[in-house]
Amino acid sequence: MSKGVVLVVDDEPPIRDILSFYLKRAEYQVLVAENGVRGLEEMAKLAPDLIISDLRMPEMSGDEFCRRVKGEPATRDIYFMLVSALDGSMSKIGGLNIGADDMISKPFHAQEVMAKVDSAFRLIAMQKEIKRQNTELTFFQERVNGEMELAARLQMGLLPALPGAAPGIRYTHRYLPADGIGGDIYAITPLPDGSTALMIADVSGHGVTAALISAMVKTSFESHVRVSLDPLAWAVGMNQDLARNTLAEQFATAFLAHLKPASGKMEYVVAGHPAPFRIQGGSAGGARRPEQLEGKGFMLGIDADLPFSAQVSPLNAGDRLVLFTDGLVEVEREDRTYLGEEGLMDFCSNLPGDAEAAAQQLIDQVRAFNGPSSFGDDVTMVVVDRVD
After folding, report:
1. Which of 254, 257, 384, 258 is nearest to 321 (CA)?
2. Is the pTM of this model over 0.85?
3. How many CB atoms lie within 10 A of CB 99?
4. Which of 72, 180, 201, 265 is spaced 20 to 30 Å from 281 by Cα?
5. Residue 172 is part of which domain span?
6. pLDDT in tens, 47-69
């Protein structure tokens, strides 16, 4: 089996013959040509791995031949050795400057040439392996990107349709995953009695794993909502589901709420998540004083037996809730100024009445605070307006 293809280009037959002899004896396949023009014709028949070309030849010299080979994308990676009778380092520099990979001085020893050829083929083998691995890596990356895009579309399909409405409320959201797909999720589920179940959650980590767990969180939430109207029962059940079906280092923070427009109340559980802001009369817009709901609590999924507690807050007609994940507030400027929940609360103190406009204004303000940097974490924000 041939070790590779070598094209020998020289206008002197004895040079072609001696190089061909040694190359064939070393088990290389050999092509020969008397000048650059003929060399290009031979290359059209069979692409060589390596070219050994004299510098001075009629019709097309070696330097022009080298420029032609190195100037074409299809042939520029062929290893090219120029053979020159010119002495001195300047000759070698000149040959390398036109694109040759190596220079051989005349008169040469055949053993020296063969040593250079063997060395060149070791490099050629490494280059081919690198190209092969790069091709596989590119294919793999394209496949991963395609699957990530599909997963991102599927994850977007888990979010409620916008603009959204349920009995007594209107809502919108901004969902900005850090890696195209993330661990944030929220759900708004109308209930048979005219009330609404609400959840926003943030799964630890990023990427596909976090997205899978966020889908699990949503499924668990909807499952428990179907059998109970008690957000405390939702929290206990969801915690048990996550603790039993995820790894020890995986967890989720969540805010779970039962909105009761008929009574003007909201019962909720804070499970390690930033508590939302309530803005009295906020759906009318203008300057308002937000208040952060009380409650902290454990994260979901750490231990199946963790306790949780429920809180109650008024939610009257015209009130607004701003729910968010920590990616929205854990931003800081280049001067290390930290936004935090207090900074976001300041932004919420004067919002438009329209929920869409309010959500966009908040995102724009946080982005402006963050300066040129992009969000380093998944960002989800939900604006819920209580209507008549």
Report:
1. 384
2. no
3. 16
4. 201
5. 159-386
6. 999 999 999 899 999 999 999 99
